[in-house]
Specification:
five-stranded antiparallel sheet; 3 domains; Cytochrome Bc1 Complex, Chain D, domain 2
């Protein structure tokens, strides 16, 4: 389940809970916030032996949409044309020239050019090493490894020892020069090519060096020895090559549901605290929501006894959607949403977290800004992807005027006007401070998406400056149309060619950059705009309904590459286009904003110049939207 999908449904759950009394009718409770926990630091090599069975399971769950079930680079996203190419992991050439440390780095940080997402915050360090070694060795076969084992025992074990630790019977005569082939701090720095060359050409000088085997072993035999040596420090090496060799041991699949549609079942789960030192209350209230294909959602209540919960007489249907929530420290924590067909053995587990208010745990992984320059001003749609690098949920004890906990703060350029939000229960806007508030907690390792649309006055030019409240360590992308607009983006936004979003072509600018909190995300625009434009739709309006396409083609396509989110956003966008919901929603938002602007002016909160300028911008925008709606 992707982060954007989770947040939208998380909000629906929050509204349902509020409507039922619960949190919505209770006084606010300010939690005692524990000290933040620092994220663990990678040590640069595997600190524990990588587990190939674990690597196979991670690969099957997270990598096959692009790389294919056998790792041949023919996954469904490649076959559908959404991804132009994915590495074929079943051929030696893909990995052999790289060191495992480099392979691990790509898995951790992603590869934007190859449209591979980063997994540094989604997988633990040991999980990343497991899947790194599993995919690095995927071109090996068990037959090749067994051949290498026999050759190693015959030619290498007298020095390196039966298990490769360097304790063979002849090692004592070589003054400690025999390598320990199970030492991952050293072996992770050797590529297969370097190991093959060492076997072929020897290492060091006689009589204490390792002899060359190029004349004694064929090329295939030397490659087999390398394959076997690579397995020496690994756990469950029998799972190597499992994806392309079905007979090889695979992780055991969890049992599936045996109940039939229309029957009732007991849904169980385990409540855990994902924060170091966190606890589970002895009796913790837990709620189950069941979303049928038609009709209103059903709600079930229970109490977790020492972390275990059970919901009896739950209706089952493979197409129903199920989610479990729990209010902990005055925040709602929710599971991913699980279809009935995907529930394994009637179990959905839930993780809660302790809280942190330390903003240094938040980093911006990507920010995409799409600007349409029209006759009425700048229409800006923006998507942020942020990550919480701690093991606690990021939020604050500060409250919005209507009593919601303030989480992330996104500062907008001075003069920005926000016509509304597609998730009004989640966001709030402080117009005087040009700041958007996101009330959704940022969970550890979460690919947290913030989606915004705002308007800015514009005639022949504008300096757009957006202060950052968190450090940026990733992709900054700017898309501008029409092409007559000149952009000065400095080092942050150099030109990188044209980009197609929907039916429109944008001038594209961007870089992978590092900025600190307090730095400015800025650029300068000059030139005249054309008629009002649209991001990938037919309404003539830039609105919140445009954001899924931006995420789909820009953030997801070039930064995240999460298959489930791609397909969900595509369906969501199609529904929006079919029902023509975008224009009426934006009309309502603009009318409301004008009314609120009038009230603020009458209350003396705005000076007349600011009031007239903002009101003129909103009225011009409203006229355009209504014209398109009438068409």
């Amino acid at each position: 389940m992707t982060a954007g999908y989770r947040h939208s449904l998380w909000l629906l759950l929050l509204l349902l809970l509020a409507a039922c009394g619960g949190l919505g009718g209770e006084p606010q409770i300010v939690a005692t916030v524990p000290q933040p926990t620092a994220a663990p630091t990678d040590v640069g090599y595997p600190s524990i032996p990588p587990d190939m069975a674990q690597g196979a399971a991670i690969f099957a769950a997270r990598c096959t949409d692009c790389h294919g079930e056998a790792g041949a680079g023919d996954g469904p996203l490649v076959q559908s044309g959404q991804i132009s190419d994915a590495s074929n992991l079943t051929i030696p050439e893909t990995a052999s020239s790289q060191r495992p440390t480099e392979w691990f780095g790509t898995i951790t940080d992603g590869n934007i050019a190859a449209m591979m997402p980063p997994w540094g915050n989604a997988l633990t360090e040991s999980e990343r090493w497991s899947v790194a070694y599993y995919t690095y060795t995927l071109h090996y076969t068990q037959a090749q490894i067994e051949e290498g084992r026999a050759i190693f025992q015959e030619n290498c074990a007298r020095c390196h020892g039966e298990t490769g630790t360097g304790d063979g019977p002849d090692a004592a005569d070589l003054d400690g020069a025999v390598s320990n082939l199970t030492d991952l701090s050293k072996m992770a720095l050797l590529s297969d090519t370097a190991m093959y060359n060492g076997v072929s050409e020897g290492v060091g000088h006689p009589p204490d060096g390792m002899p060359a085997f190029a004349d004694d072993l064929s090329e295939e035999q030397r490659q087999a020895v390398v394959a076997f040596i690579r397995t020496l420090p690994l756990v469950n090496a029998g799972s190597i090559g499992a994806a392309q060799n079905p007979a090889v041991m695979q992780p055991e699949a969890a049992p599936e549901m045996t109940v039939e549609a229309g029957e009732a079942f007991t849904l169980s789960g385990q409540l855990t605290n994902g924060s170091a030192g966190g606890t589970i209350p002895a009796e913790q209230p837990v709620t189950l929501f069941v979303f049928p294909t038609e009709g209103d959602p059903q709600q079930f209540e229970t109490v977790a006894q020492d972390g275990t919960y059970h919901f009896a007489d739950v209706p089952f249907d493979p197409d129903y959607i199920y989610a479990v929530t729990s209010a902990y420290r005055d925040r709602i924590f929710a599971t991913d949403f699980v279809a009935g067909a995907d529930i394994q053995d009637g179990v959905i587990d839930l993780t809660i977290y302790e809280l942190t208010e330390d903003p240094s745990v938040i980093s911006i992984n990507a920010v995409v800004t799409q600007v349409n320059v029209s006759q009425s001003g700048l229409e800006i749609a923006q998507v942020w992807q942020l990550t919480n690098e701690s093991d606690r949920a990021y939020t604050t004890s500060q409250l919005t005027p209507d009593g919601r906990h303030i989480g992330l703060l996104i500062s907008l350029p001075p003069g920005a006007i926000v016509p509304g939000f597609n998730e009004p229960g989640r966001y709030a806007y402080l117009a005087e401070q040009y700041t958007v508030i996101d009330t959704a907690p940022v969970l550890p390792g979460d690919g947290h998406l913030v989606q915004l649309v705002y308007l800015i006055d514009y005639e022949d030019g504008a300096i757009i400056e957006q202060p950052l409240n968190y450090r940026l360590d990733g992709e900054a992308r700017l898309l501008v149309r029409p092409p007559t607009i000149q952009v000065d983006g400095g080092d942050l936004f150099p030109p990188i060619g044209d980009a197609t979003v929907g039916q429109n072509i944008y001038s594209s600018y961007g870089s992978t950059s590092t900025l600190n909190a307090g730095d400015i995300l800025g650029f300068t625009l000059t030139g005249r705009g054309g008629s009002s434009t649209v991001v990938g739709g037919d309404t003539g309006v830039v609105s919140e309904s445009s954001l899924p396409l931006i995420i789909l083609l820009v953030v997801i396509g070039e930064v995240l590459l999460v298959g489930g989110l791609i397909f969900w956003f595509a369906r969501r966008r199609a529904r929006m286009r079919d029902t023509s919901e975008a224009s009426p929603a934006l009309i309502d938002a603009l009318v409301k904003q004008i009314s609120e602007l009038d009230s603020d002016f009458e209350a003396g909160k705005l000076d007349q110049t600011t009031y007239q300028r903002q009101r003129a911008t909103l009225k011009a925008r409203l006229a355009e939207v209504m014209d398109h709606a009438a068409d």
